[in-house]
Design goal:
The protein has about 270 residues and is α/β, with parallel strands linked by helices. It is about 50% helix and about 10% strand.
């Protein structure tokens, strides 16, 4: 029997809609649409066009995008300890490119690929006995392999023994990552845990894990913000890649606020 729509399903839908609204490109589009609707209001319409242009250009500047991302990443703790290996390294999804599943057997990686490559290094170095990959499919579509299964297959291809790889394929967002990981951790009796995810994502992820009673050490990776104090000669020239970076930072900051209001994080 197919399950009905739950409150969390509604939250997932609304969160995707919120992501769209938090994009500077969306703001510019809405301003231009308002200018079109108010085109007979002369100065007001042109003012909206100017505002859309300035807003879009501002968030496309390397200086602005780097500052936003550095602020977002700045609260990511790094508490990984050397010495005795961890029972498991927990890797969160968001590594696979969902928009082009037909390329390279569906194994295109996003800019967050360091999550899985760092886990591979830890396994090879003996700093983690096993890996738990947490990540289902947040986008409805034809049935197929989950992200966790695909990443597990990658690790096997890279020489990791199958009995060291555990996958969790049900979670669709960070809260569910934590809930499902807690279940798997309890089943295996793991005690020393290391959480690996992108630096910008780490504070929210760690808060979710704390909420479900897990206290993993943290290894933030995939830093995107430019190094503080560096001077980029092109720092005042708009680029589309910087618009993406600004959008990612704004979405993560909003996600932290929403998760805190919903009670999904303990911190």
């Amino acid at each position: 029997m197919q399950r009905g729509v739950t409150g969390h399903d509604v939250f997932l839908f609304l969160s995707k809609f919120l992501d769209l609204l938090l994009a500077p490109l969306t703001w510019a589009f809405l301003l231009l649409l308002a200018a079109l609707l108010l085109r007979r209001r002369g100065r007001l319409a042109w003012g909206l066009v100017l505002l859309a242009t300035v807003e879009l250009a501002t968030f496309s500047l390397p200086t602005v995008a780097d500052a936003l991302m550095r602020f977002t990443e700045g609260s990511a703790p790094r508490t990984m300890r050397d010495g005795e290996p961890y029972d498991v390294v927990v890797v969160l999804g968001g590594v696979m490119e969902a928009r082009a599943p037909w390329m390279d057997d569906g194994r295109d990686l996003t800019g967050a690929a360091e999550r899985i490559t760092r886990a591979l290094e830890l396994l090879r170095a003996g700093q983690a006995r096993q890996v738990l990959i947490s990540g289902g499919d947040a986008n409805p579509g034809p049935p197929g392999s989950s992200e966790a299964e695909e990443l597990g297959a990658m690790l096997r291809t890279w020489g990791v023994e199958p009995d060291r790889i555990v996958v969790e394929t049900s979670s669709r967002n960070t809260r569910e990552n934590a809930l499902e990981s807690a279940r798997v951790v309890a089943e295996h009796g793991w005690r020393r845990l290391l959480l690996v995810t992108s630096a910008a994502h780490m504070p929210r992820a760690l808060g979710c894990f704390h909420r479900v009673g897990l206290r993993p050490d943290a290894l933030p990776v995939d830093y995107r913000g430019g190094a503080p104090g560096t001077v980029d000669p092109s720092g005042w020239w708009p680029r589309s890649a910087n618009l993406d970076l600004s959008t990612e930072a704004l979405r993560e900051l909003a996600g932290r606020l929403v998760y805190r209001v919903r009670g999904y994080t303990a911190d």
